[in-house]
Design a protein that fits this description.
Length: 196
């Protein structure tokens, strides 16, 4: 199956599980909206929520079904509202955010790796969906990276000495390893240009 066929089938899935039920309730765009503009808006909504699982598309439908705009509550909510509620139902995978791969593959990602801030910066991206924008955010990430490095080192020392870890320590190490692997994969992407 080609990527286009996969994308089209995913779009059809979103239409079936989310768009059609919403339209079945009477959701529409304001009178006078050109048909082509309506189609474009629906396509953008589909693209915005296509990462959701079937269950979370249903959750989004259940959440939005009584949140229409206008006096009759039958107009589609703003795109930002749909995106925010989709994020609440299921956070978008960090790898889907524009700029993420190029940022980590750039000199900025290499600097984060060399300064032992890679996992902290990756987690910042996961929370904020963007890179650090000012000195305050950079300092906050560096502080978090130092605390994280200390916690990881203490837990690894305990393991080395055969001291049993607490469940939260084990979970922290597993989450750290997973985030580190994901961030390293982004830093080591071949063929990326210097974006930072």
């Amino acid at each position: 199956m080609t990527e286009d066929q996969t994308e089209e089938s995913n779009r059809a899935r979103v239409r079936r599980l989310f768009i059609a039920p919403m339209q079945g309730l009477g959701f529409r765009f304001k009178k006078g909206t050109p048909i082509e503009e309506e189609r474009k808006r629906i396509e953008r909504i589909i693209d915005d929520v296509s990462y959701l699982t079937d269950r979370n598309l249903d959750r989004l439908y259940l959440t939005l079904r009584d949140k229409g705009e206008g006096s009759a509550r039958c107009f589609w909510p703003a795109r930002a509202t749909i995106i925010a509620l989709a994020q609440a139902a299921q956070p978008r995978p960090i790898e889907d955010f524009p700029g993420l791969a190029s940022w980590f593959a750039s000199a900025a990602g290499q600097r984060a790796l060399e300064a032992n801030r890679l996992v902290a910066e990756y987690r910042f991206w996961k929370a904020k969906h963007r890179p650090p924008m000012n000195e305050h955010e950079t300092a906050m990430i560096a502080s978090h990276a130092r605390r994280l490095a200390s916690d990881v080192e203490l837990a690894r020392e305990r393991l080395y000495r055969n001291v049993p870890l607490q469940p939260d320590e084990r979970a922290m190490l597993e989450a750290y390893a997973l985030d580190e692997r994901s961030a390293l994969d982004l830093v080591n992407v071949p063929g990326q240009e210097d974006a930072a």
